[in-house]
Design goal:
It is a single chain. The protein contains 11 helices and 7 strands. It is elongated and about 100 Å long. It folds into 2 domains: 170 residues, Spore Coat Polysaccharide Biosynthesis Protein SpsA, Chain A; 70 residues. The longest helix is centred in the C-terminal third of the chain and has 35 residues. Helix 2 links the parallel strand 1 and strand 2. It has 294 residues and is an alpha/beta fold.
């Protein structure tokens, strides 16, 4: 299929230290197919940095990003490429159809609504990593140095000409997703923090609302004392402590998250390390060295 679309191409597989024994399979593919490039990272760094590693290693005029579970059908690649040829630097693929549980759908909608509210954006929750990006968009993407990154949000931040196609996402054919509930929550929170600093403003708003609620409660208690219905003193103290403690804890937590991101950026540590890379050149060199030694 790819040979009919373009004259030359490469297929880059990034092994993010998967526990399913993927590397030996990828190594065999790289040895048997000169168009396959297999990359193994030194440790698990997550989907977003694995995507970054793949884009950093590709050399084509366009790159297609897709998951390896085949929920994103390769049959949609020609449609992505055709739209890119119309002059778009970024072509997103919008999922349609039922491809995940109802609980996951509800959680995704809540997250997208919160993201759009905080960031004042119009992000479509049915967009996924399945997309095609031009060389100009790839180089712009790689200029972002954040460790905790979001592929889609960076593409939207770049602002190049983009469009969308629709496709039917398949059900997962085998295995289980590595994104459990805890990882999904962490991924969503990372997206909210990455998107904008408005989450800091949200902390201020919440603090104001809670302070106002405490002030209103104080007025109610004062009014009750005037008419003779005095509330127990311990109830007043506990309510005030809960309100103040909630405000302080929430604000400190949000500020702590941002300070942690600032520390990570200030350290300038590498985002990932590539332990092994197998392509036609490295394999040919290895065979030549083996022949010379023998």
């Amino acid at each position: 299929m790819l040979s009919r679309l373009v004259g030359s191409y490469e297929i880059i597989f990034v092994d993010d230290r998967a526990r399913d024994g993927a590397w030996p399979v990828l190594a065999k593919l790289a040895e048997s197919d000169p168009c396959v490039v297999a990359i193994r990272l030194s440790r698990n760094v997550g989907q977003q940095l694995a995507i970054t590693a793949g884009l950093d290693q590709c050399c084509g005029a366009y790159a297609i990003v897709m998951d390896c579970d085949l929920q994103d059908p390769p049959e949609s690649i020609p449609a992505l490429y055709a739209r890119a040829q119309e002059g778009f630097d970024i072509v997103f693929a919008k999922r349609k159809g039922v491809h995940q549980s109802k609980m996951r759908v509800v959680a995704n909608r809540l997250y997208v609504s919160m993201l759009n509210l905080i960031c004042r954006s119009n992000f479509d929750g049915e967009l996924g990593a399945f997309s095609i990006v031009s060389r100009r968009a790839i180089e712009a993407f790689l200029r972002f140095q954040e460790r905790d990154r979001q592929y889609l949000l960076i593409l939207l931040e770049i602002g190049f000409e983009s469009t969308t196609i629709e496709y039917t996402r398949e059900h997962r054919r085998g295995g289980r997703s590595s994104f459990n509930f805890a990882r999904l929550v962490a991924h969503g929170l990372s997206g909210l923090i990455f998107a904008a600093a408005r989450l800091l403003h949200l902390a201020i708003y919440v603090g104001c609302v809670l302070f106002g609620a405490g002030l209103l409660l104080a007025c109610v208690l004062i009014a009750r004392s005037i008419i003779g219905a005095v509330a127990p003193s311990w109830a007043i103290v506990i309510n005030v402590q809960l309100l103040i403690g909630g405000i302080v804890t929430f604000c400190i937590g949000i500020n702590g998250l941002y300070l942690g991101r600032i520390l990570g950026s200030a350290q300038h540590r590498p985002l990932y390390f590539i332990q092994d890379r197998l392509d036609r050149r490295s394999i040919a060199q290895t065979r030549a060295n083996s022949a010379m030694q023998s």
